[in-house]
Amino acid sequence: MRMSSSRAEGSRTPVYDHGGGVRSVQVPIPDNPLGHTLVYVVDTDAGPVLIDTGWDDPASWDTLVAGLAACGTSAAEVHGVVITHHHPDHHGLSGRVREASGAWIAMHAADSAVVRRTREARPEHWYSYMADKLTAAGAPEAHVAPLRTARGPLPGLSPALPDREIIPGELLDLPGRRLRAIWTPGHTPGHVCLHLEEQHPSQLPGHGRLFSGDHVLPEITPHIGLYEDPDDTTVTDPLGDYLASLERIAHLAPAEILPAHQHPFTDAPARVRQLLTHHESRLTGLSRLLTEPLTPWQLAERMDWNRPWAQIPYGSRNIAVSEAEAHLRRLVKLGRAEAVPGSGPVRYVAV
Ligand SMILES: [Zn+2]
Ligand SMILES: [Zn+2]
């Protein structure tokens, strides 16, 4: 079901009716190959509840407003906002929705902590944390130098503070609906999927529907890097968290997955198997590269990306190194790699 918007240029607001009181609005993400975030509008007895809100940009806001109008409601009528994770393409517009409606915003405590830190962080503190981290990962000085002199605000510095906590395993307070929070850390420490424990509207086999955020997407694998926390020295294992969270979703066996990007799909267990296989073969490939001792930076340079390392832009290299480190953590945890004693920056080798 596509409905036209009221915008002057006559463009159409992409709204899709998934049945059973669930619709989605395609909210654009400016200058991003992902294209859009699917914001789900779930009808409840107290008014519509949104799953995620989209990127904080005037055009994205206009699309969300037009989409809600196409759903027969408005931003002012929104009862609550449930956020799958803190990333700006999911949580960006939450503050504007709350301003327009007085809606509550719910998020898992681990991601709310990231939001709080982001709001309090002084940019200089953040830049020097990043510079130190990259140096420790073996980044060349030419890459790190700009961070040591960087000034000015960080993008997305003022995300809305959530006012409700999503408790894993519990039902959310959605009058007339059964929506249960499933904690799926990995992509972020507090990522949640939301399980709509109701019969599928087209009677598809399986258990209800799952709003999967970025955890399980039909055609791409989410970024798994380190959880960035300047004040926490715990050695986390985000890839290990992610793989365990995937198993949890296969177990649920939902009839349909409603992801935050791309398009809905069925057969969650098959998609989970693909993702597990993908990461297993990646880990195997990396342990092969580690026959010679490498820093995380050197490992990232040698890993397969969607283009040659020389063509990867600055910011994406930081993300790539974080991903290399997440895989190293997993290999170390599995006993398949270890740090070379006395090396600085630390180099890793397969065992
Ligand atoms: Zn994300
Ligand atoms: Zn996303």
Question: How would you characterize the overall build of this protein?
Answer:
The protein is α/β, with parallel strands linked by helices. The chain has 2 domains: 3-117 and 157-276, 4-Layer Sandwich (Metallo-beta-lactamase, Chain A); 122-154 and 290-350, no CATH class. Helix content is 35%, strand content 18%. It contains 10 helices and 15 strands. The protein has helices at 58-70, 88-91, 94-101, 109-120, 123-136, 141-149, 238-252, 268-289, 296-302, 314-333; strands at 3-4, 12-13, 15-19, 22-28, 36-42, 49-51, 80-82, 104-108, 164-166, 179-183, 192-196, 209-213, 256-259, 337-339, 348-350. It has a 7-stranded mixed β-sheet. α1 links the parallel β6 and β7. α5 (123-136) runs antiparallel to α6 (141-149) and α7 packs antiparallel against α8. The structure holds zinc ion (ZN) (2 copies). The site of one zinc ion has 4 residues, from loops.
